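To whoever picks this up:

The parser on our side crashed when reading a file containing two proteins. I've narrowed it down to the boundary between the first structure block and the second sequence. Both blocks are reproduced below exactly, byte for byte. First block:
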Amino acid sequence: MQLSQLSFKPDKNRVIDWALSAFGIIGALIGVFKGATVCVYFLGSYILILFAAAFVREWFFYQQSRNDKALISNKSKCITELTKSNKQKEKYYNCLKDLHLSAHYLRDSYSKMLDAENLNKDILDIAKTHLEQSLDKFSSVFKTITGRHCRACIKYVFDVCEEPISNTPTFYTVTLVRTDKTSSIAEKNKEYPLEGNSDFLLLFNKRKNIFRCNDLSSLKAYRNSNWPDNEDDLKCFIENQKYDYISTIVWPIRSCGDDVKVVGFLCVDSIEKDTFCKVDEEIGAIIADTLYPVITEYRKIRMKLNQEEVARP
């Protein structure tokens, strides 16, 4: 909305004043030339016209004022939206450096594993350190964008054929790295069945490309390994806000092509509702796609070391 649009029409009040003045002069001339009786009738008509003119004038003034207020209101809304948009653009611009550093550390992690002459646990530890650095920058990206505290984690998927932990033929997820160190210690070496988490299962079965929800408590039949299964316990759990997060985005770490293979998940979450938007999905997708060769190489080395350990007498 431009200020030039607040243009006004010709002044109707002045036109009415000139018309009434001319009418009054004509009435005076009639009184002089035609007599007092005609003048009285004319004067009565003149008074009625004055009232009518006053009403018309006020009506024009009201309509003009309303139109002007509408124009000013629309302009104010446009300025507000533009300011909001510029602030949001500034946030995305400010997060670019951290986004680049996140990808930078992923490259370092992959290079260390790929260039290693002797595959051992130390190589995995170095690679994992770079993954932690990458994840820290990744969570900083969303802190900048949302203005809220956000956590992030990387999980990888395995089945019993690769790393036998249970006799149940199912897929599991294990947290590889997490920004929240307290939760990371609690989750260390814990495996969670894929079917116990609605978001992971949807992505693993390729029914969704990205999972985003700004209020997990509003989802029907939502399952989470860290949430109670019992309906009454779940209600109490949500009412007392015992959850670690309520808003989340999850991206599958997967291959491309016809035979898509999901090897892990990249997650970001917040304790506050309505934290993430549609654009945020594309930000995380950049890192999730970059993670695929890193996680694939990490799993390959880990499997090889596990097999060597089992074969060792």
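<<boundary where parser fails>>
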Amino acid sequence: MKTISIPYYTSTLDLHVDEANLKAVVTAKMHEYKAGKTEVELVHEALEHPIASPRLRDLAKGKQKVVLVTSDHTRAVPSKITLPILLDEIRQGNGRRYHHPDCHRPAPPHHRGRAAPHVWRCHRGS
């Protein structure tokens, strides 16, 4: 029996697999990867050099409405970093200001430390 630790939330779970049923274990090296740039720099670079698409600011030019969909507290996306940069990129394209008229249900207290503060503070009508 082979025991494999798999990531689960902030910890791991042990998965026990009969070795006769196990072909391989593929392990990500994400904890060893060093980007050489900050998260902010990486987001800016990605927006400056989109793949097979015009820049977001160019797509926003002349538009009256923009829908920006991002992850909530249930996904490990750094919205506190990405949202301001994305909104700035859109504003540079059309000069308009945006706000959220609604959002997901409030994050449970145990998720709030992991989510961007503006995600768990927002509520209907804010």
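After patching the parser it read the second block fine. The chain has four helices and two strands. The longest helix spans residues 79-94.
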